[in-house]
Structures are given as C-alpha cells and as structure tokens.
Amino acid sequence: MGFSRCHVWQCKQVGLGNWRMADYNRAVTETWLARGGETGAWLRSHLNHPTGHPHDVQTTLGSVETWNQSLKTALNILLNANCPMCIIWGSDRILFYNDAFLKVLRECNSLVPYGRSVNESWEQNWEQVRSDVERVFTTGQPLQRERVAFPVKQNTNTRDLLFSWSYSALWDEHGQIGGVFATGLQASAYESAQSSASAIVARSPSGVTLQQTIQELTHHIETSPLATVCWDREFRVTFWSQRAESMFGWTAEEVMGKTPLDWHFVFEADREQVNQTIAQLFSGINTVCHNRNYRKDGSVVFCEWYNSTLVDDQGNLVSMLSFALDVTDRKQAEAAQQASETRFRRYERVVSATADAISLVDRQYRYQIVNQAYLDWNQKSYTDIVGHSVSELMGQEVFETVIQPHLDRCLAGETVQYNEWFEFPRLGRQFLSVTYSPYREADQTISGVVVSVRNITPLKQAEEAVRQSEQRFQEIAQTISQLFFIRSAITRDFIYVSPAYERIWGRSCESLYQNPDSWVESIHPDDRAVVTQSLTEQFAGNSVQREYRIIQPDGTACWISAQISLVRDEFGNPLHFIGFAKDVSDRKRLEQELIKSRDFRELLFNESGDALFLVDSDTLLTTDCNQRAVELFEVGSKAELIHIEGHILQKRQFTPQEMATIQQEINEKGYWSREVEYITRRGREFWGDLSVKQLTFEDQRFNLVRVNDISQRKAAEFALQQSEARYLAILEDQTELITRFKFDGTLLFVNDAFCRYYGVSRDEIIGHRYQPLIYPADQPAIDRCLAALSPKNPVSSVEHRVFVNGTVRWMQWTNHAIYDAQGNLLELQSVGRDIDDRKQAEQQVQAALAEKEVLLQEVYHRVKNNLQLIQSMLQMQQRRLNNPEAVQALQDSWNRIMTISLVHEILYQSDNLAEINLRDYIPALVQHIATSYHLTAPDVVVKTEVESIVAPMKKAICCGLILNELVTNALKYAFPEKKSGQVTVVVTVDRTRSQNMITITVQDNGVGLPQSLDLSSIKTLGLTLVQDFVDQLRGTIAIESSQGCLFRITFNLEP
Questions:
Q1: CA angle at 82 for the pair 122 and 61, rounded to the nearest 5°
Q2: Each residue of 565-590: pLDDT tens digit?
Q3: Which residue, 469, 482, 495, is CA-closest to 829?
Q4: Contact at 8 Å (CB) between 432 and 453?
Q5: Res. 237 pLDDT band, cuts 50 70 90
Q6: Which CATH architecture has domain 915-1055?
Q7: How many CB atoms lie within 10 A of CB 732?
Q8: Is the entire prediction scored with pTM above 0.70?
Q9: Considering only the top CATH level, what class is 354-455?
C-alpha cells in the first residue's frame, strides 16, 4: 500500500500541462493510428458510420490525410493511453476520445457522436464544462476541477457521478492554441461503493433481511473493479476478494490470517510508508495512499489503496476495510508523459532564452518557425515572417547568391557553417556566424533546414582592438625570454607573436602571420600526433599544456614546452588563445641523462633551474630538494624543506579530498600539473608551475616534484587583461569626446558624448569628414600636429576652435595614431574636452597681468627716478664739502642708493617684474662701484663671474648691498699706497641638493686682515650692514685671510 491525499482518478497526476504538440512529433514512436483499440479502428477505417457506432460521425475537419500534424500527434497519444481522455479541437469544438473514455460513457449509457462538435452532440453534459474549456482556449493555462457532479442516465434513472476534470492547452506548429486535452475521471470507486451501500440500506424495506443486504453488498464487492481486503484489529486478513486474487495472484487461503508484512507482498522501499499507514488506521484515521506491491509471480504492481476503519458504539476498533485499484498503466503513462514534457520544457526554455536567432525553413524555402531573437533582429512580427519565403525577407539577389546555395547543400544532408557581414534595419552592419543544419523527421527524411545565427560582431571588434593594442604590451612581451603569442579563437589567425619565435623556431614572425599553420611544419614527425590531439583539445575550448620537439632550419632538434589558455569575453564566448612556449631542450637532455645515470640525483638537483623535490609516494613527505628550492622559497637551508608536506608552502593548502584526487590521478596517469600560488618563508608571494611525475628507481617509487617560477608570465597576463580593461573602459565609460578617424579626416567612430556635444546623431556624422567642424584658421595647426605623429611618437595634443551649434568654442584634443606590425598607419583615435571656459579665464588673467605689469613698471620707474634724485642731491652736497671724511660718507651713501636704484632700473626694463637675473644685475653693480673708486685705486682690476640665477627682488637687493659694502671695502683698504691688484666677485648656485644654495665670494689679493680679527667685534657701519643683510637672507658668512682677504656668503634661494 502507498498513501497520499488524492482521489482515485486524480487530475493533477494525469494532466498534460500546456503541450506544444509539434515539438513531440519525433518523440512519438508509434505509427499514425497503429493502435488505439475500437476508437482507433473507427479512424483507420473511415469517418462515416464507423463500425459499432450509433451516430453519423462526419466531421468538418475533412479527410484524415489533411489533418493538422499537431492533432495527429495528440490523437496518437490519446488512443494509446490507458486512462480516460478526450480532445476538444478547433473552433467547432470537435470531440475525440479513447477506449477508456468510451467504456465510461457506455457504462453510463451516455454515448456521444465521435468526431462531431460537442455543442451539438453532448449538450446536456457539455454545459457542465463549457466555461472551463473556453477558459483554457482563451488563456492557454492548465485548469483543474475536482468532484464535479456529472448527470448520466442508467436505464430509466438519472443520477450524478462525481468526476475530476483536468484541462490542458494543445499548441499547433505556429504557436497557436489548436485544442484542449481533457481528462474527465470518475471520482473514487471507493466513494461509489460507499454510495451504493448507502443506497441499498436506504431503499431496503423493513421486510428485507440483513442477510439479503449482506448478499447484495457482497455481490457489489465481487463485481467491483477494485480488490477488496478486510483486516481484523491485529491487521490480519479476514476477507480477500476474487478481484484481489486476480490482481495479486494469491488465493484467500494463502493470505488469510496474515498481516501485509508476513508474506512477500509489500515493496521493500515502501515498508516504512505502510507501517505509518497502519499506525494511522489504528489511530482511527482513514487514508488514501499509493504504494507498490508484489504479485505472487514476483512482478510489481502500483496500487491505489482506500483504507477505512469500523468502530463500535464505544469507539473501539472492530475491523478495517481496504479497496485497491491497479494504476500501474497510469503511473507508467504519467512517468513517460512527465519525462516528455520535461524534455520539451527544457528545449523551449533553451530556444527562447538564447540570444542566437534561430529559424526553421522548409524545402520550399518558407519560414516555419522563428524564435524571438530572430524577430528582434529583423524588426518583424511573427506573422510577417512565418509562412513567407526567405527571398521576401532577404531580397531575391541576396537569397539567390548567398543563402540558397547553403540551403540546398543542407537539404542534401550537409551541415554548413560560415561567417559573413550582413545589414540589419536596427543593428546596421553586423558580422554573423551562420550554421545550417538538416531538420530530420522521425523517419530520418530531411524536411527542412534549421538556421542558427550568432552575432559575433563584438568578437570581431575585440580582435581588432587586441591587434591595435599590441603596442601597449609589446615592451612587456619582448622582455620575456619565452615565446608569447595571441591567437584568434574564431579565425585562428595569429594576432601577435613575440620576437622569441624567430630565435626558437628559426622562422620569421611574418611567415606565421601569413600562414598560421606553418609552425606545425617544424614539428618532429614522431610528435605530430600528440600535437594534433592537443590542437583538437585547444580549439574545443580547453587549456592545453604539452611538450614536443621541433626541427630547426639547421637540422637541430629542439624540445618545446607550450602552455595555452582560452580567454572568453564577458558573455562566456571564446575570444582568443594566449600561449607561452619556451625552449626546454636543456631540461629534456638533462632528464634523459639522469635516467641513464646512477648519480642522477646530484645532476638533477644541481643543474636544474627549477625548484625540485623528491617526495615519498606513500607518506607524501619530502626526502630531498635542490638548492634552487632553497633560494625560491627563501629558507636558510635544505633542512627546513625536508620531512614536510609540500603543499604547506602554498598560499592555500590542498584539502584532504583534493590530495586524494591528485594522488589518484598520479597513480593513473603517472603525472600531474597545475599552476599554484606560493608564499615564501619571508612572506613573498609568487606563482609557480607545479608538476609531479611518478618515477621508479631500484624498485623504489617516488614522486619528482618540479616548481617553476612563472610570476613574470602571470604579470604579463595580468598586464594584458588590464590593458584590455582600460581600452574597454575608454570606449564605454568616458565622458570626454572620443572619435576614431582616417588620416584624411573621415570619421569611423564617435561616442555618445561627441554626439551630444555637437548635437548630431552617429548616422549623420559617421563616414563624413570632421573638417567642417573646425575653425578654418586653426586647420593648419591640426594638420601639423597629425603630420608629426609616427610609430615612435604616436601621441600628440593640440588646442583649437570648433563650431558648436553656430558658436565658436575652444577644444583640446589628444591624438593617438594606431599602427600595424609593419608600421603602417591604420587609423587615429582622439579624445577631446571643452576648454572654452579655461581659455576665457586665461585671457582675463592675461589682461589683468598686463595691467599689473604696466603699473609695476611705472612704480619701478618712479622709484628709480626718486633714488636718482637723492643721488643727485648727495653729489651736490658732496661737492660743497671740504671735509674728506664727510665726502667719503656721502659717497658711501650714494653707492648704497645706487645699488637699490640699479635693481629698479633693471626691473623697469625687464619682462619679469617680480624676479631679477643676478647675471644682469651684479656685473653692472660692481662696474658702477669700481668706476666710483677709480681715482682711489686706479690700478686695481675688478672681475665678475656670475651664473644665470633668477632671484626675487628682495633677495637681489640684499645681495647688491652686501656686494657694495665688500667691494667698496676692498677698493678702499686692500691696496694701500695705490698698489695694483685684483678684486674678484664670484656668484654660483648648487642645484644638486634638494634646495638651491647660492654662494657669493668676494676675494682680493691685497694686504688682508689681521689673523685675530673677530667679525662679531667689528663695529664699523659697512660690516655691520653686511652681517644684517646676511641674517635677512638666513645665510652664513665666512672670512679667510691667508692670501689677501676672502668673504664667502652662503644662503638658500628658496623662501
């Protein structure tokens, strides 16, 4: 027994859901109307007056041969089903049913014409279900009704039978609802038996004895299609009906007094469920359940059990009654139906969800089925395409020249695939991958072609982007000693090959670009099968690592280790292959020698450039390692790497399950490899190529583990990914104006920001030249900027004016020239931004600066004039004095004022009003001082050596006043009795330090100063001023008097 809360014919167990019958044509294995019993015979013989049928069954559907294929498929399922089913088809609501349904109708004495409209043939009963059927016809959604009263006539009486109704939509080949699948199943036979018993008791006259009533009940039980079993309070069999004997094979004598678990009756997997049911019955709970039971011959029958209890007036359990119905055929039909429906739903979801455009074309080149993607691509509705010819949609010329030849090849049994450019109303020019596949019927005849179209324009554009961005990672790729290459996963052309190819293969890179398979010609004949197999795996989308030999042009054999990985785009589609290959001939020769050599471990460990470990294959502990392992993992000695499990050196250690899987693969294949991220004892992380090979030496098994540092290659891969990501970000996320154009100015691409700025659409601007947008006077500057671009200098910037909606605005453009591998200019890409506001601000600042410069020049001019007026007044006063000391004091004051006046004179004549070049100022100043003391020291020569140093005005005046005092002092006191001599002024700057240090040296070869002279004790006005000015400069002063006198002042030019 098995238990679930449901009726005998429960609709939701046999409802078909929304079947799209056209997709089940191939799933129906029986020939059209090959089975189906009596109702099938009616259709096979003829439609008019079928044998044994009481009505005229002429139908408006015409002959069977012209019927819709979906209707035929549905009838095939209907006629071969064991449970009662019917189909209501078409706008006329034509009725078809199977033998199981016919049996119910005959038992109810309610036969209805076959193949006629329900509205005219079954009017009374049809009203009960009309609204539900019309609802399914309208919505297409499945519907279920339980315990619906259905009036039928038996003899002269009319009574209600309870039915459970299930309705499901049937879809034709064009996706329209063609009919409704209805399952009207009579309610529980157990309920019917109860109703019969109640009726018998109710109509029994008082004179009818209890024995007569029992006999009548027994008659109903024995003639019932249900097996009847009675149980006592210990759940032992007390009654076993004849139907139970025929259903299960055991006689009443064989099972009487036994519980269901006492003989081989209950299916093992259902025993727990049966125990729960027994417990429920002992608790007084009536149950309905489903479970499997064994027949006496050992076969299994699926039963539907209806269990109830009989209690006395005190509520004590007296006995239990069970009815069983064989539902094996129904369960098998449900399982087959559910499997078919599941397959169809999956197929439907896949086709509907795919972005590929899919269509079915018949042998007359007419569309039969198209998916939503196909409609979206062509901007057409379903009715605009389905039923129409391909030439109507694509045009006669394109159909005859491009499409029809492929369709004809496919209809002949060939699968065709090609890539081509097509024009679409909404998408424009698109690069498509088109596949034509034969559509075969159940008998394997080709009735049409399935056309699958995939848009691979982004992949095509990505290939071009990768080729154009070659320069971005060229420098990285060329620094790698290994061969690095990028190969298209679509066209299989090489996009980039590093120069290492020419060194390793001895062939030019250009030859590989022209013939992508030419590298295979160098493969050693013994290794070509292995390489061919790996190429098959590679183009299937798998990462491949292989080692093989090549023959170089000079006849030398060279071992190659290659690793190739597949890169996919953001949608998971194959984009290109990235591969590395290196010459491992030395390693291979070493391995071969080590196999032959008895002391192979010493050679293996000392000569290998990779980290090598010997690992016990049983304990997985390292027993030895080479010096490279010590260096790579940054440990102090080998001892730190011995007797450990190697995977603890990894950044993420293997789990026990992973270790078991790895060991299993090593045992099966003899080797294992993977890329693993490690971390050294010092915390440095690096990527390693980990490979393990199982070896046997002197009857001892061990694993040879090799770790190769591949961090450089990983960095190159990461750099390439970053480069591609940056390139995509520029195209997709930039707010600046981005455009690509030919050298003649023809625009190839503009982004949205460009269109918004100029107020145009892409269609209006693409293919036209950009020159009309340029202010004419600025075009020569743009031409010069673009002409200066070269492969070595591919980037330049230019500022110019443009026309925007009738106004003139300033733009700044950064131009990038894109070249191919031969240095030929492919196109230019420019990124622009509006700088009109900045230009206007600059013009305002320039105007303001010009006004300030004029004002400052006027100020300097007036200050200079005032200082000169003071100098003139001092000279007038000097000429009137006879006291030499007074005259000298006025002369010194005159020189100091002249020092300041000279600064203002130079600033007045300079373009820079805030700073002064000491090279222009100091020589003129010293010359003025020397001229004023010419009579005092006529034979003294004054020399100056001044570097070009731009100093602020304030510091320049301090320097001038210091020099005035020191030079004047030398001319007055260093050369007594008017001896000849020399005064040298040197000004230098030290720019090697973080700050600009200025050194001013004033040196003479005169009498010098006393050795005991203390500068701080000198109270003369001149030296006091010098010390004050040095302090203002935050500098230092030093005096030397070994040969004459030398003053050295040092200060920082910066504030």
A1: 45
A2: 888 887 878 888 888 888 888 888 87
A3: 469
A4: yes
A5: very high
A6: 2-Layer Sandwich (3.30)
A7: 9
A8: no
A9: alpha beta
